[in-house]
Amino acid sequence: MLLIHGIYRFSETRVGFRHSNCVHCEDARLTEQFRTFNFWHVFFVPVLPLGFVKNWRCATCGKDPNPVRERPVVLIAGAVVMGLFGALMFVSGFFANRDQLAMIGMGLGMLFFAALCVWVLKRQLRADRILAAARVVPIENDNCPYCPGKIRAELFSECNGCGARRV
């Protein structure tokens, strides 16, 4: 049976803006924060309300400026398990009788080691993106990019006209 499901996003409102480094544009751009009320739907019928969610979008390309969402503890634990399993499978191939099972173990060990190397390289790219984000200059002027209103000079400053927040 074909099950058509997904997420509906209702009542999208712009709630904030900031300068951020967009991964897709590869430059510092204005990014906007939108708040939506999400529903999980089955056959286009809203079934389960998921609540309010805030998402960032690049004002130039419309995509998520930082699509990588990582949980460091889970990734480090996964890397340790993959490394140990890969080493165990690779070493077990040397001490076995070179039968088919031992060769499969060596192959799996090499695959897990290759996956671990790819993970380390991706982490390095993530660190480069963090350094690029640190070089982004914050918005300094007090003009709202959405309306002719002025932005109040506070910690979390809002526009007098449209209520958008500079984050």
Structure, described:
The protein is of the alpha+beta class and 167 residues long. Helix content is 35%, strand content 30%. It has helices spanning 72-95, 100-134; strands spanning 5-22, 27-42, 45-58, 165-166. A 4-stranded mixed β-sheet has the order 3-2-1-4, covered by helices on one side. Helix 1 (72-95) packs antiparallel against helix 2 (100-134). It is elongated, with a radius of gyration of 24 Å.
Count of DSSP strands: 4
On the 0 to 100 scale, the average pLDDT is 76
Name the structural class.
alpha+beta
The structural domain count equals 2
- The portion of residues forming beta strands comes to 25-35%
Q: Tell me about the biggest sheet?
A: 4 strands, mixed
Tell me the strand order in the biggest sheet: 3-2-1-4
What is the overall shape?
A: elongated
Give the SSE map.
Layout: E1 5-22, E2 27-42, E3 45-58, H1 72-95, H2 100-134, E4 165-166
Parallel strand pairs: 1-4
Antiparallel strand pairs: 1-2, 2-3
Task: Give structural attributes.
single chain; 167 residues; alpha+beta; 4-stranded mixed sheet; 2 helices; 4 strands
Kindly summarize this structure in a few lines:
This protein has 2 helices and 4 strands, in the order βββααβ. With 167 residues, the protein is of the alpha+beta class.
